[in-house]
UniProtKB/TrEMBL annotation:
Bilayer topology: Multi-pass membrane protein
Swiss-Prot/TrEMBL keywords: ATP-binding, Membrane, Nucleotide-binding, Plasmid, Transmembrane, Transmembrane helix
S-adenosyl-L-methionine is among the record's keywords: no
InterPro entries: ABC1_TM_dom (IPR011527), ABC1_TM_sf (IPR036640), ABC_transporter-like_ATP-bd (IPR003439), P-loop_NTPase (IPR027417), Type_1_exporter (IPR039421)
Domain ABC transmembrane type-1: 75-326
Recorded superkingdom: Bacteria
Organism whose genome encodes this protein: Rhizobium grahamii CCGE 502
Segments passing through the bilayer: 15-33, 87-108, 179-205, 276-298
Protein name in the entry: Multidrug ABC transporter ATP-binding and permease protein
Pfam families tied to this protein: ABC_membrane, ABC_tran
Main location: membrane
Domain ABC transporter: 370-902
Annotated compartments: Cell membrane
PANTHER family (UniProt xref): ATP-BINDING CASSETTE SUB-FAMILY B, HAEMOLYSIN SECRETION ATP-BINDING PROTEIN
Length: 904
């Protein structure tokens, strides 16, 4: 990595810098002419110099040069103009020079900006490229938030400086020297005054700004450390809450913020002191020009035109000079930042770039044995985890690795998976060191999974197929406009030193998973999900999800058949009447009062309970049907019963799990509200009080809560109000409320609600599990299981996969490793969060039944249960970093060794 930022910029933008420097040099010509022109205007047509006689004229725009040997050559003899015409002509030339200088500035600044943005893109990509090539051990010593902050924020000024690195000193220095030279030409002494002030600014100001640079460096370091600390708080929030250390963290953050405040306050003081001094020196010079220049003009030693030209030229001198001083400060500041980036990212040894070269071609199977020779692995403290272990693992062989905790078995598996690098010895395949093999080989023909999991933000399917995204295999179908845009992006990527790989291409290697394309990938995924016992979890996610009927057409078309078949299947079980279907003409006692009243599903987030309750049509319906008073009285009684029954119970009491309309925290609130509302009618209450009481009645289910509040008369009134609601429903509500349709699919309801088209009876024990089991069999028999599975696979796993449980994450991690159908599978206690019985079942599924005969890979599995080693071909027993015993299950179980102790 280049240590000097200036050299880095020059080596990557040499040709562009030379071009823009040439443009800067040309721009100095009209810049100089714009200084001399005001003098000509004042002395010539305004004061009349050269126009003394009546009708006098002067030559305008004569272009002639004296060339060596040839002599004077006249290119244009010019035009004769009178005094007024000359004034207009020179003024128009001045205007043209202003426009030309502006166009030069526009082009130069635009070119600099584009150059800087390309360089910023290059720097960021190269830094991320280096992160991808860091040795595994380095990630134990860095904080991800600090690395991200450096790449995102700290290199930002480097992009802006790239365009200014060579152009700004040439442009600003050229402008300042041009203005200073012009002043000296007009009057030597005024020129010397300007030069002296410039010298003071050029020497004193940069020296004072050294303190600013040091403070800026301290500010950058403290801000980066704060970012890293905040990242630690987010990642370790469970540890903080579990140990009551939130106030310790607050104290730590307050101390860091105090340090940042003191640095920034000191920075502001120095910054404005330097600014004050710079502005003072800039204003002293005009004072000297007016005083001394005016005196010389009064003495006749300086004409008015020269004085005006000098003052006009000096007005353009402080700007470039100040910007030049600012450029020098930015140069030093950016160099300091770059030095910090260099120190952070200049890690040795990096993974060789060639190891990560992309390969679109299929990678042949690994048919050679995995040979471990004299392998030794240590942790960061130097403690030996694996000590001179040698072993050979053959293709298609299943090997169980067992041993007590800290035996070295885990470190051995990590070395095979390239997560740690050996201190000595090596791991080879076909005579080639594992660390020298391209990742295109090890990343496709070898799989590693452990208890540590990480998933990127996206769907379950995205993360499951992540193991197959090695190279862009199929280009997207762009239209002409999109193709031109993609071509432009590719050209810009090349100019910025970025790869031209298109992220919008299809990267999934379907053939590696045993599929032909996206249409049959679920056929390949299904056995893997079944093997790790994840299919039911994904089915449950699908049942709780809404369905896009435009995508899952077959499922939507079969929904009515599914409802009928489900009820028939349930009739054949012991739970015959477990589902109470929705009927527009009848009240469903297993549904809430609100569900019975609405008889439909709201399209969220366009509509919710609060908006519906506030709608004028809904409020009018309540008043006309008298339900407002009925539900008010019902809500008051629910509140009284709940407060009376639960006010003495602790907040974590299991009874609160059955109290769906109220939480433990709501009890004191309703207790106070009931005292306030004693003997008050619906009309006397405030809108907030009405809402708080009536919402209790909306969530009431008689068979579940059993307060005896639902009479036949009230249920009939609710059904009547329901009919009136849907009969005259306004268009705005009809657009956001989807009525239950026994012959159609309800897109705003979940899949399970669509299939049930009713509610499960609360009196039946284990009713929900029974229905899910029947639904799974039903989807399978109708050939819809994969369609339903794809709905579950659309579930967003959240940041780091945290929307999944730990058990689900470990199952998914194992499934992702299996989907590649690698030749060597290394599993390092991958299911530690699962019950031992479930671990054993999944292990047997994978070792014995997942792959067909002849496609069985080599499996190296670090087991938590030594008894399960019986199903493996060979056993490696580790103890204190050494290979203590090796052999098959019958041999080791009969010996009086450590393995026999583990079995007991």
């Amino acid at each position: 990595m280049e240590k000097s930022l200036a050299r880095y910029i020059w080596s990557n933008t040499r040709l562009q810098q030379l071009w823009i420097l040439g443009v800067v040099a040309v721009s100095m010509i009209p810049y100089f002419l714009s200084f001399d022109l005001p003098k000509q205007i004042v002395n010539g047509p305004i004061q009349g110099s050269g126009f003394e006689g009546q009708g006098a004229t002067q030559t305008f725009m004569r272009i002639a040069y004296t060339l060596p040997i040839v002599g004077e050559v006249e290119f244009f003899k010019g035009i004769q103009l009178d005094r007024l015409q000359m004034l207009m002509g020179l003024s128009l030339v001045f205007l043209a020079l202003v426009v030309l200088n502006g166009l030069f500035k526009f082009y130069i600044n635009t070119y600099k900006g584009r150059l800087g943005e390309r360089m910023l893109r290059r720097i960021r990509f190269e830094l991320i490229d280096r992160v991808l090539r860091f040795p595994p051990s380095h990630f134990k010593r860095v904080k991800s938030a600090e690395i991200a902050t450096m790449i995102k924020d700290e290199v930002e000024p480097m992009g802006g400086f790239t365009g200014d690195a060579f152009v700004s000193p040439a442009l600003l220095g050229g402008q300042a020297l041009t203005a200073l030279a012009f002043i000296i030409v007009q009057n030597f002494w005024l020129g010397m005054i300007a030069a002296a002030i410039v010298g003071v600014q050029a020497v004193v100001i940069p020296r004072m700004r050294k303190r600013l640079l040091e403070l800026g460096r301290q500010r950058q370091l403290t801000a980066r450390e704060l970012s890293g600390r905040v990242g630690e708080i987010v990642d370790g929030i469970g540890t903080i809450h579990g140990n009551d250390t939130s106030n310790f963290e607050r104290a730590d953050i307050a101390t860091r913020l105090g340090l940042i405040f003191s640095i920034r306050y000191d920075l502001y003081q120095w910054k404005f002191l330097v600014k004050f001094l710079n502005n003072f020196l800039a204003q002293v010079t005009p004072f000297l020009f007016y005083a001394i220049g005016g005196y010389l003009a009064l003495q006749g030693r300086l004409d008015i035109g020269q004085l005006v030209a000098v003052i006009s030229a000096y007005k353009d001198l402080p700007g470039p000079l100040k910007e030049l001083i600012d450029w020098d400060q930015m140069r030093q500041d950016v160099q300091v930042k770059y030095q910090q980036v260099y120190e952070q990212f200049n890690v040795e040894p990096l993974i060789e770039a060639g190891i990560q070269d992309m390969s679109s071609e299929p990678i042949g199977a690994l048919t050679a044995p995995l040979v471990v020779t004299n392998l030794s692995v240590s942790d960061d403290s130097g403690a030996r985890l694996v000590d001179h272990v040698s072993v050979e693992i053959k293709p298609n062989e299943t090997v169980a690795v067992v041993g007590p905790n800290s035996s070295g078995a885990e470190a051995f598996a990590e070395a095979l998976g390239r997560l740690v690098w050996p201190d000595s010895g090596r791991v080879t395949i076909g005579g080639k060191d594992l660390l020298d093999l391209p990742e295109a080989v090890t990343g496709r023909r070898m799989s590693y999974a452990s208890a540590d999991t990480y998933f990127f933000h996206g769907t379950l399917l995205d993360n499951l197929l992540y193991a197959l995204k090695h190279a862009p295999l199929r280009q997207p179908d762009y239209d002409d406009k999109a193709a031109l845009e993609a071509k432009w992006h590719a050209e810009e990527a090349i100019k910025a030193g970025n790869p031209t790989m298109d992220i919008n291409s299809d990267w999934v290697d379907y053939q590696a998973a045993g599929a032909t394309g996206p249409d049959d990938i679920l056929t390949a995924i299904r056995p893997v999900l079944d093997a790790v016992l994840l299919s039911q979890d994904i089915l449950d996610l699908a049942l709780r999800s809404n369905v896009d009927t435009k995508v899952h057409v077959a499922l939507a078309d079969h929904i009515v058949d599914l409802r009928e078949t489900l009820r028939q299947r349930m009739q054949e079980t012991e739970h015959g009447n477990i589902i109470v279907p929705f009927d527009f003409d009848a009240y469903n006692p297993q549904a809430t009062v609100g569900e019975n009243l609405l008889f439909g599903s709201m399209k969220r987030p366009l509509m919710n309970n609060r908006r519906l309750a506030a709608h004028p049509y809904f409020q009018t319906l309540f008043r006309e049907t008298g339900l407002s008073n009925d539900l008010w009285a019902m809500g008051l009684e629910i509140a009284e019963n709940a407060v009376e029954l639960f006010h003495d119970l602790p907040p974590d009491h299991p009874f609160f799990q059955q109290l769906t309309f109220m939480t433990a925290d709501d009890i004191p609130t309703y207790q106070a509200l009931l005292q306030k509302l004693q003997s008050r009618r619906f009309d006397d209450a405030t809108p907030e009080e009405r809402s708080a009481i009536i919402r209790l009645s909306f969530a009431y289910i008689e068979p579940r809560h059993r307060f005896g509040l639902l009479t036949e008369e009230l249920m009939d009134k609710i059904v009547s109000a329901r009919k009136q609601f849907h009969e005259n429903i306004p268009d705005d509500l009809a657009a956001v409320i989807e009525r239950y349709d026994p012959q159609g699919f309800i897109s705003s309801a979940s899949l399970m609600d669509n299939v049930l088209f009713g509610r499960i009876a609360y009196q039946q024990a284990d009713a929900s599990d029974s229905i899910r089991s029947v639904m799974g069999d039903l989807f399978e028999s109708l050939g819809l299981f994969n369609d339903v599975l794809s709905i579950g696979l659309e579930f967003d796993v959240g940041s780091g996969g945290k929307r999944l449980t730990m058990v689900q994450r470990q199952k998914l991690n194992l499934a992702r490793a299996l989907l590649k159908r690698s030749d060597y599978l290394i599993f390092n206690r991958p299911l530690s969060a699962l019950d031992q019985r479930v671990q054993d079942a999944i292990t047997k599924n994978i070792v014995e039944g997942l792959h067909k005969e002849g496609e069985k890979p080599a499996i190296i599995w670090v087991l938590s249960n030594a008894k399960l080693a019986e199903i493996f071909d060979r056993i490696l027993l580790f103890d204190r970093g050494t290979l203590a015993e090796a052999g098959n299950f019958p041999e080791l179980s009969e010996q009086n060794g450590m393995f026999k102790e583990l079995l007991s």
